[in-house]
Amino acid sequence: MTLPAFAQLPAGDLVLASASSIRAKILHDAGLGYRCYPVVIDEESVRASASAEAVPVGDIAIMLAEMKAAAAVQRLALETGPSPAFVLGCDQILTYDEVIYSKPRDQTMAKAQLMALSGKTHQLFSAAVLYRNGERIWHHLAIAKITMRRLDEDFIDSYLDRLDAAAFSSPASYQIENLGAHLLSQIDGCYFSILGLPLLELLGILREHGLKPSETR
Question: Of residues 13, 42, 59, 91, which has the active-site annotation?
Fold first, then answer.
């Protein structure tokens, strides 16, 4: 049985421009009315081009989040008419020693990333951009510092074997909400943002735009 949302916006559900199951779970667990509308953009090309022009990493993350939200706004307008009330785009970039780590393509790449980050402190930039009625109204950038413990090859192999395809869904193959906790020794940052969505800040801006508990029946 699916329970009704605890909190609703006056104009209807929030649209999440993402296929991320963890972002959807965050919104669901917070009792928000929402619907998913995944979009695809060429993230690798955008990151590479922006990096070549020395664009700061945080700005790249915001740019990608905005591109995702804008793409959802445009496509939904073509499909259903007027732009939906609220559309949220998100992006994350992991960086260490001025190198950006993308989602690994395969287990070999995943292992190489974990070996490179073993025993080191890296940064995770998490951006969110919100559109209302087709206009960009808000963005937030969270920066976390995350330290990996020293990992040996046997542990990395076992970890990646256990994760299977899930290892390719995030840079450095870690998911702190489950097995990824075994990789880390210290976290300095917001838990929700590290998962991929700055929930507390999002709830704050949505309350400014009418988010309130749903009427009980």
Answer: 91
**Is 29 among the catalytic positions?**
no
Please count the structural domains in the chain: 1
Half-sphere exposure of residue 96: CA atoms within 13 angstroms, side-chain side: 18
Asked if the structure places residue 2 within a domain, the reply is no
Nearest CA to 208 out of 129, 137, 135 is that of 137
pLDDT in tens, 56-81: 999 999 999 999 999 999 999 888 77
Q: What is the pTM of this model?
A: 0.91
